[in-house]
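Bench log. Compound arrived from synthesis this morning; before running ITC I wanted a structural hypothesis for how phosphoric acid mono(formamide)ester sits in the protein. Inputs:
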Amino acid sequence: MKHFIDINNLKKKEIDEIISLAKKIKKNPKKYSSFCSDKTLGLIFEKQSLRTRLSFNVGMQKLGGSVLELQSKDIGFDNKREKAEDVLKVLSQYIDCIMIRNNNHKHIVNLSKENIIPIINGLTEYSHPCQILGDFLTLQEYFKSIKKTNIAWIGDYNNVLRSLIHLQNIYNFKLNLIVPKEIFKNYKKEFQQYKNTNLNHFFDPILGTKNSNCIMTDVWVSMGEKNKNKVKYFKNFTVNKEIMNNASRNVIFMHCLPAKREKEVTSDVLDGKNSVVLKQAKNRMYIQQAILIYVLKK
Ligand code: CP
Ligand code: NVA
């Protein structure tokens, strides 16, 4: 049984296949319009979602499949009425795969180990692999050679970044993390596990973005985080024109969205000509479709 939990669980060959399939679906969607005609996807969101909810929903329908959004509480997925494993065993009698967004990565990992039904990680506090594979598709549309791509991540050490680091470890593109020292110190040990010559850390946004051809950021406080006080550490970390001008001439700006305007990014950058955020959002759908076909394929 195949699951889609984290990018570093996948082989390079599998990621290449998912990306290549997403490109084919994008080019010729009609060809895939009945690929999942007898399949049903269940969606469980324990946190808010616009893009992931819509891209899975519309994406599955365009493959000819059906979608059921299941409220965790309504179906008793909170381990109170019956064990989550038992809920999945019953779900698997009606539906073919399930996407879960929660605040408990370990729970998703443990459930996937039971191999009851294919599980897709739709974001946890630990990672956001669907987002980063979608972004990988977007990057490939802008840069011919992914190895020569020079990405700067400015902001928090969070779920989206972690999936990006997993991808970097497989494709070895240049990735500079520019994370405030007060935040970075908590992840130093984790970072060492992934460190390589193309993966570096900076404290200074100007130094870290020199020669970058892609600048990425995300909210400073992720959903479900209690420590809102940490925003004080991001004083010079707003992606603005000065930072964009400091990078390569044709630098693109990426953000998974939702964005907090004038916090992690200024409106002139978010809405500016170098911003590809809406393309990222659109590409989420082709990637979700490719991921669905990947996990559903026998
Ligand atoms: N980028 C992203 O996952 O958006 P949502 O939280 O709206 O799904
Ligand atoms: N890091 C953000 C991503 C949202 C898509 C969060 O977890 O809230």
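What the model suggests: Strands lie at 40-45, 66-69, 97-101, 119-121, 150-154, 174-178, 199-202, 214-217, 252-255. The mean pLDDT is 97.
ITC booked for Thursday regardless.
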